[in-house]
Write the structure tokens for this entry.
Amino acid sequence: MNERIAKRLARAGMCSRRDAERWIADGRVAVNGTVLTTPAVVVGDTDIIAVDGKPLPDSERSRLWRYHKRAGLVTTHRDPQGRPTVFEKLPEDLPRVVSVGRLDLGSEGLLLLTNDGALARRLELPSNGWVRRYRVRIHGDGDPRRLAALEKGITVEGVRYGPIKAVLDRQQGSNAWLTVALQEGKNREIRRVMEHLGWPVSRLIRIAYGPFQLGNLAEGAVEEIFAKVVKEQLGNADRRRPE
């Protein structure tokens, strides 16, 4: 099967396509003994690919895991500031994986992991229509009327955010717990929107990513999702897409 080099690296679970393009720019990738200078290269089954001088491992079947991220971990393989990362805390018997989207340093909860960079990209597509759900603790009153207004979308410091469904679950003194659902999820969207409303976020837990739930998964635990379930959910997403 012929495909672009970045896709082949992602399919082998080495990295995301974006990372692959960076690796090529850094001169880390060679095909048939020639170091690549551009990602615009198509490779076939007989081509010999090496990264940092080491042969590319055989492509493993695509796999997906649920992971319960704790707060204080960065969702990156290497952090320039030396902060602990999600990938340093994973079980040693797990193959090399990439994350589906991210959770910021202070956020916790469900993070999907896969050994297939192409699958990660597909699961991130807004066209899937998958809703991300969060439990959010704010410092403030969580006025239901102001929360309801978020369903029309909101602009914060020139950035337009789409519809956000936010419901007040309970008030605990000066703090409130909300359930928040959104589809796209721009960088730090919930925190920025709530702070704009005067409600700083003190805790943010993702409890669902589309059809995949955090459930009772313990903090730090990893659990594989059956291939049949992944295939069914991707099929459902495809059927929802416009022609």
About this structure: The radius of gyration is 20 Å. The first strand starts at residue 3 and ends at 4. The mean pLDDT is 90. The chain is about 20% helix and 30% strand.
